[in-house]
Design brief:
Length: 188
């Protein structure tokens, strides 16, 4: 999904006050926005049975360096990495509760200038996500209201990567089709 040289297939998300987006040395750099900066995919993509993975780094700043907005059937959701002051991870939104308010809420330490592998899988009735090798999200989506947090993040649809009051770098963005969840379902 990223050729390492250009934004082919992507567009700069038109957030008010967005930072500059550049491609350099095999990276997409999302400049510091006031408050957002991001890119959005312009080509066709699946809405289920897919996995997206990429490396993300907070270059500078103090909030989320990865807000991955993605389709889930006919809805959209965002995986937030490093939000709410730098350490929150979770999905926005589940049953109208954002990443700081639902059962996916986790707090992790994120170092500046360190790459993290972000991986997200959407299959029938399930969302899974990993940071490096740690599974951070594993939820059933049946009978759940999946939505985006109200506001500008909606500009990232259908698939986008954004940062908030931070400068971020992205590399090795890839998507593949999958048939099933990565792991057996949890006992719910």
């Amino acid at each position: 999904m990223f050729d390492g040289k250009t934004l082919k297939g992507w567009r700069v998300t038109e957030f008010a006050g967005h930072g500059k987006v550049t491609c350099e040395d095999g990276l997409i750099v999302l400049g510091m926005g006031d408050p957002f900066c991001g890119i959005s995919w312009t080509n066709k993509l699946p809405t289920t049975k897919y996995e997206i993975g990429f490396d993300a780094m907070r270059v500078m700043g103090s909030d989320f360096f990865c807000g991955l907005t993605f389709p889930v059937d006919s809805s959209f959701c965002s995986l937030i990495v490093g939000g709410w002051g730098g350490s929150l991870v979770g999905l926005s939104s589940l049953d109208s509760l954002d990443a700081s308010e639902n059962e996916t809420t986790k707090y992790m330490s994120f170092d500046q200038q360190r790459w993290y592998r972000i991986r997200l899988r959407v299959t029938e009735g399930r969302i899974e996500a990993w940071i490096d090798k740690e599974k951070v999200v594993d939820i059933k989506t049946r009978e759940r209201r999946i939505s985006l947090r109200a506001g500008d993040i909606e500009l990232s649809k259908p698939l986008g990567i954004a940062c908030w009051q931070s400068m971020a770098a992205l590399r090795q963005i890839q998507m593949r089709r999958v048939a099933e969840p990565a792991d057996p379902p949890k006992k719910y």
